[in-house]
Every structure is written in C-alpha cells, then in structure tokens.
Specification:
Number of strands: 18
Shape: globular
Number of helices: 13
Strand order of the largest sheet: 3-2-1-4-5-6-17
Strand content: 25-35%
CATH class of the largest domain: Alpha Beta
Radius of gyration: 20 Å
CATH architecture of the largest domain: 2-Layer Sandwich
Largest sheet: 7 strands, parallel
Length: 379
C-alpha cells in the first residue's frame, strides 16, 4: 500500500481520490474546505487537507510525505504546479490539461530523476494510449479522434452541459485548432469542418475542429494525417458561432453604466447557469478512435475503438469523471506496480506503446465498467 496525494478536489480529482483508496492511503487536497468535506462524506476513509498549490514551500513540504503525486488542479495552474512537483523530486501523474507544452519539462524531470506521466484522461489520454500501442506494430498513415461529453437530456438552445468550468470549454471554442494533413501542420479556426457522425445508442452527433492533438504533434511526426474533433448534439455549433462572432468570447472589456466588464467573464457567468451539470444529472461520454495503416504483413487495415459510457448510478460518479479520472488512476497504479519506470515527461502514447501498459489500462478500465470495443477491417 502506497501513500498518494491528490491535488484538486473537483469532479475528476475527487473521483480519482476515491478510486485510489481501494488500494492506497490517499490524501485529497484543495483550497476549498467545503469541497473537501463533501468528498469526505462520500468516502470516510479518505484523508483531506486544505492546501493552496501556489504556496510552493507548503506544497513541497506536503507532497514530500507521499510516494506519488496526482495533480488535478485547474489548467491555468497546471504547468507551474507540475514544474514545482518535479523540482521537489516527486513522481507525478498529471491530469490538469494545461495549455503549455509539457515536453518542455522533460529535461528537468530527467535531472531530478522523476517520472511524470501527463495528459492522462479520456482524450487526451486513452486515444493516445491506443495510438501509441498500434504505432509499434503498424505503419500508420491516419489517426482521428472524435470525442465529447454530453447530457442525456437535450435542453434548448445549447443541448450541452459542462462537466468542467465554462471558461475551459470556451477555450476549446476559441483556441486555433492544429491538425496534420499530408505531413503538414494545418491551423484552422475551431468550430469549422462540421460533419454529422452516427453513433449507436446516441444517434447523430456533430463533429468540429478543436485543438486536441497536443503532444502527438511532436511525438508522432511520422504519421501524415492526424486530427481530433469534438462532438456535440446537432445545432450546438451554430449557436456557439453566433456568440463567438458577436464578440461574447472576447477578452476585452466594455463599459456598462460606468463599470468596466469583461466580455468573457460576463458570458461565462451566464453560461455557467445554462451549462451547469448538476451533481446527479445523467450524462454520457462518446469517443471513436480511428487508425489506418499497414499491418506486419503489409496489408492495409482500419482499426476503430468505440467508447460509450454513462453516469454511474451506484457510485454517483459522472461518466466524464470516470473515463477521465480512471485513466489517470490506472497510470498511477501501473507506475506503482513497476510496469513503467522511465525518467522524464511522458504523454500517454509513450506509455501505451508498451504491451503490458496498454493491456493494464484496458483491463483496469474494464473492471470499472468502462469498455472500449474494437473492430479491425481490411481496406
């Protein structure tokens, strides 16, 4: 039994902490005592402590008492916190999805003899694991990930609920989308190239460009075509584009009766109420990962992994928390069990490339009812 500290008690952080208590001593930290008390009520064996990760001395002192750190802090704090954890010489699993390039900390991690596994969610996360695994045995020329978290009940106009902060979601809608086409890096506006895609149990969904490739742009440069797209119910994109084009997502301020108001803050306040996912509200996660390439025999094949996961009524855990958080707890456990021990910063594709690690992820998730179905066909 190891001692693990989880930084961040939000929806995903709390789900991870509770999952890890099955085999480990776990301390969950957050700046918000109310959040910690709520999670403690759900899982009495969990230890909790108020902690501000911006207080670097206290952070270092606290994490040093543990065997492993799991970071689930908000994205804007993620890179700085990861850097501080590495400088404290602590091994870490990170799920904060910060906008900076985590690979910039690779040399620092090596110098401090640290293993840092980053981006351990559903996407980025499990799509990277799948890509890394098949990249070892196939000559791949195509990778696509379609992914989205959706409410079961569609409420007009947006037909959407955000499991994370609206500001984080809005960033998906404003940050330029990068993808690889014919070995060239293409940068497009997000919310473009909309397509309708059919999914079992859900029906027709709308896919659009978003900036989700992250590390694989740098770790898989030999694959000539790679793209990630976000999924929403049909009609959502049109309403979002109206807001975006009208300036509601802009960072500047406007004067309202003598008071300076941030357009983005104003929009976020309104959307927070509209998009707020209630504690036990039914929702689902849909993902499809498609790979194409030559197998060992030189035959062209298409590999498709589909995921459909829903809110867990028994554990009262959202699908997005399950599919995202349990990927990270799988990484934590496989590291503690000695399946992966390389030093440096590793996105999931560089962990999933190892046969034992890939199957560990899949089996760990399956045990928790998160099942990826696979189909391989000749093309």
């Amino acid at each position: 039994m190891s001692k693990i500290i989880v930084l961040g008690g939000g929806m995903v952080g709390s789900a991870m902490a509770i999952d890890l208590t099955k085999n480990h001593e776990v301390l969950l930290t957050d700046v918000n005592a109310e959040i910690l008390n709520s999670v403690k009520q759900r899982c009495p064996k969990l230890e909790v402590k108020e902690l501000d990760v911006n207080d670097v001395d206290n952070l270092t002192l606290t994490i040093k008492k543990h065997d492993l750190v799991v970071s689930a802090v908000p994205g804007f704090l993620g890179f700085k916190t990861l850097k501080n954890i590495i400088e404290a010489k602590m091994n870490v699993i990170d799920i904060s999805f910060f906008p900076e390039n985590s690979l910039e900390l690779n040399e620092l991690a090596k110098q401090n003899n640290v293993t840092a596994i980053v981006d351990c969610g559903v996407a980025p996360g499990m799509d990277n694991v799948i890509l890394g695994y098949y990249n070892e045995t196939y000559k791949l020329d195509f990778f696509e990930c379609l992914v989205g978290g959706l409410p079961k009940v569609k409420k007009w106009p947006f037909c959407y609920k955000a499991p994370f902060s609206p500001i984080d979601v809005i960033e998906e809608y404003t940050r330029p989308a990068r993808y690889i086409e014919n070995s060239e890096l293409i940068v497009r506006e997000p919310l473009t190239d909309c397509e309708y895609v059919e999914f079992d149990k859900v029906g027709t969904l709308e896919s659009f460009n978003s900036d989700g490739l992250r590390s694989i742009i740098f770790t898989m440069p030999h694959i000539p075509n790679m793209k990630e797209k976000t999924l929403r119910y049909p009609g959502h994109v049109e309403y979002i584009r109206v807001l975006k084009e009208s300036g509601f997502f802009a960072n500047d301020t406007i004067d309202v009766k003598g008071t300076k108001v941030s357009k983005l803050d104003f929009t976020s306040k309104i959307l927070f109420k509209e998009w707020k996912l209630e504690a036990e509200e039914p929702e689902l996660t849909v993902m499809r990962v498609t790979l194409r390439g030559l197998n060992k025999n030189g035959e062209k094949e298409e590999i498709v992994y589909d995921l459909h996961d829903e809110y867990d009524e028994i554990t009262k855990t959202s699908s997005m928390a399950r599919t995202t958080g349990y990927t990270a707890t799988a990484a934590a456990n496989l590291f503690l069990e000695g399946l992966f021990s390389e030093k440096g910063v590793f996105p999931p594709e560089l962990v999933g490339k190892h046969d034992s690690c890939f199957h560990y992820f899949m089996n760990y998730l399956k045990e928790r009812g998160i099942v990826y179905t696979k189909k391989i066909s000749k093309i």
